[in-house]
Design brief:
There is one protein chain. This protein is an all-alpha fold. The chain has one domain. 69% of the residues lie in helices and 2% in strands. It is built from 13 helices and 3 strands. It has helices spanning 11-14, 23-51, 66-74, 77-91, 96-99, 102-125, 141-146, 148-177, 181-195, 199-202, 206-227, 231-247, 269-293, and strands spanning 136-137, 248-249, 260-261. Strands 1-3-2 form a 3-stranded mixed β-sheet. The protein is globular.
């Protein structure tokens, strides 16, 4: 099939999936990915519990301390392992065909990162605007700084693995089967949104947060289709999660590596909604910056 001009680069990813486009292959692949991730994560946690017993293990449920949070982030690598196995077993394709060629992926990741870093510096230069109580200190600065390299690596693993699964494996398999871009843009984004729907934690904010995630997934799918690699989506996702997990995290969960905590929990509708509006705006601006970085 022929895409519009903006999505021609996507064919470089999808062409390897076209030889075996049957949906049952994708479904079996997703089952394998889930099984590998669950089994390997459980085995890792049991092994660590035996080697390093202690109170820190309680944080594996919510990422409430640095050690537990690093384990949780690192365990996302098992998603990538599952994708590599599924691609080989059910589609007879290599892992590299899922991510895109390494050289342009790295170049695009770096190019988008430069633009996003510039955007962050620009935002920091703007006058401060109060949106409620100040942030609450979490980790002491030097503790946070000392584990920052490991934390950054963990976030890179987590965000990269999610992109490999959703904007890589799932998006490509659907694009190989369905002609209309709406299917392979929207379906993985809906699954991504569903994975972020957490009413037990977010209460009345659960649906807006899921909508935010679905919109984010759609924009990352667009970037991937325009770039022909996962590099730009990985970069945007990485910068977003560094901010949300390492700088200003929620007090509810996944805050073990954060320098600060936002002064309200995920279920606080009145306090969180204004910040969500800001998050939507930043998401769109980041997407536009990435579009500029990879313009042809």
């Amino acid at each position: 099939m022929q895409y519009g001009h903006g999505y021609r680069a996507h064919e470089a990813l999808v062409r390897f999936a076209r030889a075996r486009p049957e949906l049952w292959r994708l479904l079996l692949g997703l089952l394998l990915v889930a099984s590998v991730s669950f089994a390997m994560t459980a085995a890792l946690q049991v092994t660590l519990a035996g080697l390093f017993p202690g109170a820190w293990l309680q944080g594996l449920a919510d990422g409430s301390n640095p050690g537990a949070m690093l384990v949780l982030l690192g365990s996302f690598a098992f998603l990538s392992l599952g994708v590599a196995m599924a691609a080989r077993l059910f589609h007879q394709r290599s892992f590299a065909t899922v991510t895109g060629h390494l050289k342009p992926l790295v170049w695009q990741f770096g190019q988008v990162s430069v633009y996003l870093l510039g955007l962050m510096l620009l935002l920091m230069a703007l006058p401060p605007y109060s949106m409620g109580p100040p942030m609450t200190p979490n980790l002491p600065f030097w503790t946070w700084f000392g584990i920052l390299p490991l934390a950054v690596a963990g976030v890179l693993v987590q965000t990269g693995s999610e992109e490999i699964l959703f904007r890589g494996y799932i998006q490509q398999a659907l694009a190989a089967r369905f002609r209309h871009p709406a299917v392979w843009l929207l379906a993985p984004s809906a699954l991504f949104a569903l994975g972020h729907y957490l009413p037990s934690e977010a209460g009345g904010n659960a649906l807006p947060i899921a909508l935010w995630a679905g919109t984010f997934g759609l924009l990352m799918a667009d970037l991937t289709a325009r770039a022909g690699t996962l590099g730009p989506a990985m970069a945007v996702h990485f910068f977003n999660n560094v901010t949300a997990l390492l700088l200003f995290a929620s007090p509810t969960s996944l805050n073990g590596l954060a320098l600060y905590l936002i002064p309200f929990d995920m279920a606080d509708v009145q306090a969180l909604r204004p910040w969500m509006a800001v998050d939507f705006a930043l998401m769109l601006v980041s997407w536009l910056a990435a579009r500029l970085a990879i313009r042809r």
